[in-house]
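Please annotate the following for my students:
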Amino acid sequence: MINDLHRSMKSQQEPAAAKKLSGGLVGYTDMHFGMEEDLFDKFGYKDDWIFEPVVFMG
């Protein structure tokens, strides 16, 4: 997916193509980390705090 987005941007395709690809990447990322969090809960993983998002204030 990320390679497709890179090719789309490099070849200067229509912005709609990059928007569609980036939307797919966001959806995949959301699904991936959601499943990961479910597995943490299911198996009682105690160090899940390591994976909490880091917010940069600048």
About this structure: The mean pLDDT is 83. Helices lie at 2-10, 15-43. Residues 5 and 21 are 6 Å apart (CA to CA). Residues 2-42 form one domain.
